[in-house]
Amino acid sequence: GENVEQHPSTLSVQEGDSAVIKCTYSDSASNYFPWYKQELGKGPQLIIDIRSNVGEKKDQRIAVTLNKTAKHFSLHITETQPEDSAVYFCAAYNNNDMRFGAGTRLTVKP
Amino acid sequence: DSGVTQTPKHLITATGQRVTLRCSPRSGDLSVYWYQQSLDQGLQFLIQYYNGEERAKGNILERFSAQQFPDLHSELNLSSLELGDSALYFCASSSTTGWNSPLHFGNGTRLTVT
Asked: CB–CB of A31/A93 below 8 Å?
């Protein structure tokens, strides 16, 4: 089955700086890669996703890149704000099996 | 607001007891997924239902069971509870049978077993 590794487990940045979270997956047949943001006391919420036929996708300050050859994908947040502080999860989907990474706790210091 | 409703928000019970967690999916969604999130742990998939039928099974213990009713709401039953079952339990819904479309999560039920 699919195995997803996520790094780093914690990340602290200064407000206005960029943050990058990386994930690797094991099954080359995986074709859908969502990212979820979980704020304290809430459930995970989808913030961006990418499919295997696309190399990059951007939505305002958030972007995701996918390297199918290397089997890794990354979340990029630019101009970070304190409200970006949360736990971020990556995931990879393949053949009716979705695996989540262990999560990254992002702290944005004002 | 994801549109997924979970009740209760908090549940405190003793070891050996049985509890039922309830989930109402987003309007129009036929799939319901249950996840367990322990302290500082990731999301562990338990089970999925689609339009009333079990679709996929993850790391769900035999002491746990679930069902999806004709009105599409779902219940997760946890029995013979142990201290280690203390966790956040999330329900998610989607419009398709598989995970290749966005999941919409509820805000979870926090279960504490004492």
From this structure: yes
